[in-house]
């Protein structure tokens, strides 16, 4: 398990083969156009992207290749895609690197340069992930983030996946996200994403719709497993899950957390750190959408514990959280209150404490959501990962933390 001591920042190099994503027809490909380009609600016309605050959300339509890649054997399909996207590449010179850390999709890099500078990433959707991921919305959100400089270039969509630009850097681990030199960059980048639509029309948060959908899938497909205590004694009954969802919706929706464009899946390995340029970038936009600001942050704090070897002793202390939140609020206010001549960057103790309480309460919804997700994945996924064990861990932490965070109060 990763040490809790503060690590030195990663060195200025890109390790070969470092993982990039977690996820969470015959003959020549048919080239068409995918969904219309994504556009910010407050972006009236295409133009150059402005960092963070909205505007310039136009993006070119994404080519769609009529190719399906076999999830069980991705390399032949990936090479076929390269013949379409990179016709100048000699097939014999194309190298491939299969990343194995993902627990939602399959990911392979195709490249010819030794340092992978020209790499194209091919992401193949996991089996049945369309049940809980809206792929059309994902594509639109990818384009919006790309237009604002928050996502890599998107090369094409194909029948069951996407091809996009390789992001140089290293995927973070539990030690990195505790390092103040790095977590300040993460906080600032999250603020940049959250500010993209901050001046547009207020959208509904996707949280409740998503939770109801996941719970419906659990009911439909897993009710024999869930309701039989002899099979899964650590999984709550459907009646308990419905009660907890109703309680969360009643309680959390009253906290006043702003609704912003959220990543919604900011686990460590979805953050790429480039030490040469001293910045971070977020990857994997399957769950991106409008949501509560505090959910996105609370979800990220939960991910300090890791995914494959979960250790909730790594959940950030209040001291670390307050440092992180102060960096976030300073950046968010600068991006969304530019008309105040910089005065908006001043963060009050009340603002800080309010966000701290909101974030820790919304962390419950994160546990609940990914626990339900784990039950669904346990049913369908072909990826070698113990989804049921993961679901049980998230439910356990939900019920452990519920009385702790319920006791937190926002001062009047």
From TrEMBL:
What gene is behind this protein? Answer: ETNK2
List each coiled-coil range.
Answer: none
Q: Provide ranges: composition bias, Basic residues.
A: 11-23
- Gene3D superfamilies with a match to the protein in the record: 3.90.1200.10, Phosphorylase Kinase, domain 1 (3.30.200.20)
Could you tell me which InterPro entries the record lists for this protein? Kinase-like_dom_sf
Give GO MF terms, alphabetically: kinase activity
Q: Which UniProt keywords apply?
A: Kinase, Lipid biosynthesis, Lipid metabolism, Phospholipid biosynthesis, Phospholipid metabolism, Transferase
Its source organism is Apteryx mantelli
| Domain of life of the organism encoding this protein | Eukaryota
Question: What's the protein called, per UniProt?
Answer: ethanolamine kinase
